[in-house]
Structures are given as C-alpha cells and as structure tokens.
Amino acid sequence: MTNQNQLAVKSVLDAWHFRVKAVNEILNKLTDEQLQHEISPGRNRGIYLLGHLSAVHDRMLPLLNFEQQMYPQLDEPFINQPDKAVAELPSANELRIAWSTINSKLTEHFNELQVDEWFQKHSNVSVEDFAKEPHRNRLSIIISRTGHLASHQGQLVLLK
Amino acid sequence: MTNQNQLAVKSVLDAWHFRVKAVNEILNKLTDEQLQHEISPGRNRGIYLLGHLSAVHDRMLPLLNFEQQMYPQLDEPFINQPDKAVAELPSANELRIAWSTINSKLTEHFNELQVDEWFQKHSNVSVEDFAKEPHRNRLSIIISRTGHLASHQGQLVLLK
C-alpha cells in the first residue's frame, strides 16, 4: 500500500507537470509575432508573461534549495518591472529556450527528491519559523507556483 | 510533530481557500454590468465564467461524496454549452449567491473530514480502478479544481 504522504506528493507533482505541459502546448501554437500581442486591450503581452513565468520558475531553483538561478537577468524586466516599462526585452526565441531549460532543470531536481525531502523547508523561511510552521515546505511551493502558472495559462490561451 | 500527510492536506486546502478568496475579491470589485463584458474581444463574458465556476464547484459536492448538487440547473448553460449559446441566463445576482452558497457548503464538508478521508476515492473512479490508482482520491480533486479556478481567476481579473 502506498503511503498517504507519497500519494499527496504524486498528486501535487502531477498537477505541476500537467500545467507546464498545457502551457507548452499553448506556446507551441503561438507564433513569435502572436506573443507580441496583449492578452486583452491594455494588458500584458504574451512575451511579458513568458518572461515572467520563466523568471518565477527560475527563482524556484534557489527557493527549493536546488541551485542558483540560471537566468537572474530575467528578474528585473519580468518581475521587478511591469510590462512595457523596459524597452529592450530578450527575443521570443530566447525566452522560449529559457522557459524550456528552466523547467527541464526543475524536473531533474524533482526526480531526485525522496518523498520526505518534499517536506523539508524551502529557503525563504528561517529554521525557527519552520519549526513552528512546518507546512512552509518545498511541497507548498509547488502547490502555489502551480496556481500561479494556471492563472497565467488562462491568459496566454487568449492569444490564440 | 505533524505528519507529512497532514501537512500536505493543509497546504492543498490552504491553496484552495486562497484562490476562492482571491476570486471573491475580484468579484466584489466588479459590478453586475462589468460581469457582462468579455474578458477579451470575442471571448467568454464574466457572467459565463461565474456560472461556469459555480457549476464546476457544485459538481464537486457529489464528486467528493458529500451530497447532491445544489444547482444542477447550472450544468446545461455553463458546462454543456459555451458562452452566448443560451439566451436566458440567471442574473449576476443569482449567480453571486449560488457561487457563495456552493463554496460555503464545500467548506463545511471540508472541515468535517479527517486527514485520512482525503485519501479516500472520489465518486468518479471505480473501486477496482482505485485499488490500482490510489492517487485518484478526494485530495487530487481539490488540487485539480484549484488549478481550474486559478486559470479562470487570471481571466476574471481582466474585467477590472
């Protein structure tokens, strides 16, 4: 019989991979030109959302105690700044490569973790706080980032 | 020390309640008139998304083996049919009430469940299949429906 913690981790990771796949399917159908469009008049462009998601996922590497960010240069234009505030953005092609590279790297690390290790603290909580709030673990990061990804998936699909 | 299964259930439920609250905050800022707008030109209207989310959450009541649907009449216009296919929809006010009532009812049931009960099968999987695929449990429904809600949250926010 499978343990409940193991089942829960599987369901959380399945949901993550499901969303990444769904977003990839949308991105694969969008041309670079379509990515330059706004999801709705006056709103974020597809290219910004692709950069934003890439940056947020890149930051999961240190947040989950895996390794340093691979693309720290994405933080300023895609996290600190809103869309259209930065004149020179990376090309759609560069961002597609970053997005794919970051997610592959995350998957590599995910596959190396034992179930217990998902319940270890993430890097944004102190040892003291984690002792009191043990739900602030790696698994909870995947849950919240899956929601973040889903919310932007609902927007990217509008570009088709 | 808290068990890992208990921590995982808490994180999943926290994410659910976080999304419901975020959607409620968006809905509270939207007028009934704004809900009649499309999220992007030619796309679903806010009123349709509110009805759709209400119907999907209502169907969670039997899916999670809690009780019968409270608003089965929402299935046809908001799940079986796309937006603008049905001429007469419930009013925004009726849908706001349904949405709030359904989520409160779900919360009531959630609060009554013990951790172990989240790992019981949902109603859409057979006993035989569940024996082979024990991840098809109630908890996995919350995880996938939280993602569904998040994707439409990303759209509703465009109406503001």
What does this structure look like?
The structure is a homodimer of 160-residue chains. With 160 residues, chain A is mainly alpha-helical. Chain A is 62% helix and 0% strand. Chain A contains seven helices and no strands. In chain A, helix 1 packs parallel to helix 7, helix 3 runs parallel beside helix 5 and helix 3 (46-63) runs antiparallel to helix 7 (138-156). The radius of gyration of chain A is 17 Å and the shape is globular. The termini of chain A are far apart.
The computed structural class of chain A is mainly alpha
Sheet having the most strands of chain A: none
Choose one word for the global shape of chain A: globular
Q: Approximately what portion of the residues of chain A adopt beta-strand conformation?
A: under 5%
Helix content of chain A: 55-70%
Pair of chains with the largest interface and how many residues each contributes: A-B, 39 and 39 residues
Describe the secondary structure blueprint for this structure.
The structure is a homodimer of 160-residue chains.
Chain A: H1 4-29, H2 32-35, H3 46-63, H4 75-80, H5 92-112, H6 127-132, H7 138-156
Short characterization:
By secondary structure, chain A is mainly α. In chain A, 62% of the residues lie in helices and 0% in strands. In chain A, α3 runs parallel beside α5 and α3 packs antiparallel against α7.
What labels describe this entry?
homodimer, 160 residues, mainly alpha, 7 helices, 62% helix, globular
